[in-house]
Amino acid sequence: MKRLLKLWRFLTSPEMILYLVFGVLTTVLNIAVFEFCYSALRWPWQAANALAWVLAVAFAFITNKLWVFRSSSFQADVFWRELLGFVAARLLSLGVDYACMWLFIDILAWNSLAAKAVDNVIVIAINYVLSKLVIFRKK
């Protein structure tokens, strides 16, 4: 019972709720840009995914820094450490992103929108752990 209560407190904490809200918004941005570039503009999925990733990472960094993890310092050393750590972590999850998209679209022949949606669930989990434990950790 204590474990369930602890899990409930974690899942309903302001940090987690904000992470989920901004995660949903980041995911919507990522999927919308990807789908527009891939389906409407007929870009290769790799190029559409790259632009979607750049825009989503920029949005996620700002929202995670300011509202989710409440890192309000804009001192150059703190800001650059967080930004570079954030981008490095997102590059790691970008590798997972591309591997999933390759598997889902090129190998399993999934619909691109379904592939991107499932891919984002996996990537969001990885990004939360990296942000919480590495990038915006409390010292």
Low-confidence residue ranges: none
How much helical structure, as a percent, in the residues?
over 70%
Structural class: mainly alpha
Over the alpha carbons, how many angstroms does the gyration radius reach?
16 Å
Portion in strands: under 5%
Element-level helix/strand string: HHHHH
How many strands, which pairing sense, and closed or not: the largest β-sheet?
Answer: none
> What's the helix count?
5
The residue-averaged pLDDT reads: 90
Number of domains: 1
Distance between the termini: 31 Å
What is the number of beta strands? 0
Q: Given the C-alpha coordinates, what overall shape results?
A: globular
| Multimerization state | single chain
Structural overview:
- This protein is mainly α.
- The chain contains five helices and no strands.
- Helix 2 packs antiparallel against helix 5, helix 3 runs antiparallel to helix 4 and helix 4 packs antiparallel against helix 5.
- The chain starts with a helix and ends with a helix.
- The mean pLDDT is 90.
Put the structure in a nutshell:
This protein is an all-alpha fold and 139 residues long. The protein has five helices and no strands.
Features:
139 residues; mainly alpha; globular
